[in-house]
# Entry
Amino acid sequence: MSRGLVESLPAADYGEESIVAATPCLGFSDFARSVAYGAYRRSGLMAAQECVACWRGREAVAVVLFHRVTDEIAPDGLTVSTAWFRGFCDLMRRRFHVIPMAEMQRVLASGQRPTARSVVITFDDCYRDNLPAARVLADYDLSATFFIPTQYVGTDHAFDWDVGLKRMPNLTWDDVRAIAQLGHSIGSHSVSHADMGLIHGDEARYELLESKRVLEDRLAMPIRWFAYPFSGAANFRPVHWPLAQELGYDLCFSAMRGFVQPNAQGNILPRLAMPPFRSLAHLELNLSGSLDWFYGLKRRLSLIPA
# Structure
């Protein structure tokens, strides 16, 4: 990205008050960080650091990951509030270039440089609150990809980690079709939300193939993308990528943090989970690359893992 492109971005007009309002349970230290992020943004250092990141060859796409968008339970590692999500959508529309998954695939295959501040939005796990979230995205003219574990759709199956929380229903097949009709895309999240790092051979083939077959039968559309459940380094095996290609998948995703680089096609691609970002300003700084220098310094000082 050229300096001119960075400087042509509209000035961010969300203040610290709106940041705090969109982030329930924000403590004093979080508020102080939000104020610091805002000051950094307004000082011009943010644009300068983004220019440096681009000059050094940063041409990545950020693939962001959501699970739940609801006010029925408190924000946690899988949950953002509806206010935070609307703030996110507004930020994406005004300050970033949100692209469909198919466009990212085309850019990766062509070897082209991604457009500055390109973002792909994804959802996992088929919570029913994903449907109103899909409608909010459509209101902002944003697209997303929803990764569906087929065994959960239209059932009362609950995930183990939701025990003790207020009951959160799953999407029905009509809901999934409604999401697709809003212009969003659908991908597979396996049949049973299996830990792919623990299964082999025919069982892995079944999770990949049967979920794809069910989604294509139910939705009458090709399913080209797969997101690994759990998605840490231990939750997939290298042999699964050739198998996924054989079965007709074009891209596979983890939930390991990182940005999708132009040379990443053929690998299991990283995504950035959203709940850890305490404010919209914090989110913008991370997605834009403005804090790359800061995280690089912390790695050199061994304050965070390399």
In short: Confidence is low (pLDDT under 50) at residues 1-26. Residues 60-277 form a domain with the TIM Barrel fold (CATH 3.20.20.370). Residues 201-219 form the longest helix (19 residues).
